[in-house]
Amino acid sequence: xxxxxxxxxxxxxxxxxxxxxxxxxxxxxxxxxxxxxxxxxxxxxxxxxxxxxxxxxxxxxxxxxxxxxxxxxxxxxxxxxxxxxxxxxxxxxxxxxxxxxxxxxxxxxxxxxxxxxxxxxxxxxxxxxxxxxxxxxxxxxxxxxxxxxxxxxxxxxxxxxxxxxxxxxxxxxxxxxxxxxxxxx
Length: 185
Prior knowledge:
Blueprint: H1 2-30, H2 50-62, H3 68-75, H4 79-97, H5 104-134, H6 145-178
């Protein structure tokens, strides 16, 4: 029984540690890239528009942090692969230990959607940020509202499917704890 609890703990902690540790490492490597009192763009559940992005990036520039934002976005193109892999390993391992109750595609689909949405969010923001930095005006006119809307939608999709992936892992781990026939070896 102790081995089962240890397995569940490791499968739960793997994506959590990779996600939290990776996010912290990215912030340390890229430098400060947030604005006090404002939620970062990649954490805005209800999305954002071009005006909100221009305002956020203008505030980053005023705080001397705008240079860190491109580095953060570039690093954040690799990060989804890392946390996505950790999630996939935990989900697939838990599913396998339950005797594979779900097809592999269903188990990792939410993770794949999360990772793709994160890449779209980062690529679009990075492209728009480069235009913003090159612009003389440093305001909303330097941004394309359609691309910002796409990045905003990708952010919301990423956050929703991240929660779905997390809940799926919790459900599978709960099932593993409750299953008398779980393969623990």
